[in-house]
């Protein structure tokens, strides 16, 4: 069950309107790594959780907070759109909001959304559920969550640098701080799961069934050998099961594929000999072609 508290989790009030910045802010609302994505990702991970209750509870705690972040950003976007759209271009020299409209506001904010936020990214691409991951394997999911929070914090930090509005920066500084906590939270949960499940997902698959001779081989498939100096190329593997092996010139291990021609009803390209025979059949009966 959810219930709504009228007050926002944190202040979301700009110092002045800025419709162009409202367009930029759409990215952390409806973009791939925006608040809508992590909100839906965490909600479904929590609802689908079959593990210990502490994990389900933790996931839904942060999922519910992300709903609050969606509300904060949507509110900020709506207030940044105050004063738009322009009615007279001559106002542009006098009204910063109107000037911003004329120089690059998202027209859908006015035409479609009535000066409000939309579930799209900063270039108008609609938010999609394909951005979300809820696999049922908590270690795999928590790693995806860590990536989402890492990319999200990066984007918020970039947006922080794109404005000087103290009200906007204040809200963004709060979101950045919460992303700091969320990254630490997922790293702590990952560390805890790795201690009981191991580092490789899924831990329940019998490793005897994989081609173990290449399980820990780092293969250099590019010019130069700079990659050989990495932690991944030598020493004990991170799962503690073997040592990394560096292979400087990996060789092909498979066959040279030769596919059979498709059946006639597919109407693909026939083999050369078939095309020659078809041409022969079309020639006059008394004509003797030379076929080498």
From TrEMBL:
Database matches in Pfam families: Mn_catalase
Family: Belongs to the manganese catalase family.
Protein name per the record: Manganese catalase family protein
């Amino acid at each position: 069950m959810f219930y709504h508290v009228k007050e926002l989790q944190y202040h979301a009030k700009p110092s002045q309107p800025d419709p162009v910045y409202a367009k930029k802010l759409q990215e952390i609302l409806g973009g791939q790594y925006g608040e809508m994505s992590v909100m839906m990702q965490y909600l479904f991970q929590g609802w689908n959780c079959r593990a210990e209750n502490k994990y389900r509870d933790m996931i839904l705690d942060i999922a519910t907070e992300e709903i609050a972040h969606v509300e904060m950003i949507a509110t900020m976007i709506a207030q940044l759109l105050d004063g738009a759209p322009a009615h007279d271009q001559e106002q542009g020299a006098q009204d910063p909001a109107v000037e911003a409209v004329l120089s690059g506001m998202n027209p859908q904010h006015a035409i479609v959304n009535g000066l409000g936020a939309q579930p799209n990214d900063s270039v108008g691409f609609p938010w999609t559920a394909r951005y979300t991951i809820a696999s049922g394997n908590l270690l795999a999911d928590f790693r995806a969550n860590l990536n989402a929070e890492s990319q999200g914090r990066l984007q918020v930090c970039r947006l922080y640098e794109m404005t000087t509005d103290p009200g906007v920066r204040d809200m963004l500084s709060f979101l950045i701080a919460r992303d700091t906590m969320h990254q630490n939270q997922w790293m702590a949960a990952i560390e805890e799961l790795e201690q009981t499940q191991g580092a490789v997902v899924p831990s329940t698959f019998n490793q005897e069934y994989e081609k173990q001779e290449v399980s820990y081989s780092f293969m250099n498939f590019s010019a130069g050998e700079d990659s050989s100096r990495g932690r991944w190329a030598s020493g004990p593997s991170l799962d503690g099961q073997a040592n990394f092996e560096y292979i400087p010139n990996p060789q092909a291990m498979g066959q040279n594929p030769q596919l059979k021609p498709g059946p006639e009803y597919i109407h693909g390209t026939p083999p050369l000999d078939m095309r020659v025979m078809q041409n022969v059949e079309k020639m006059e009966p008394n004509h003797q072609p030379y076929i080498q």
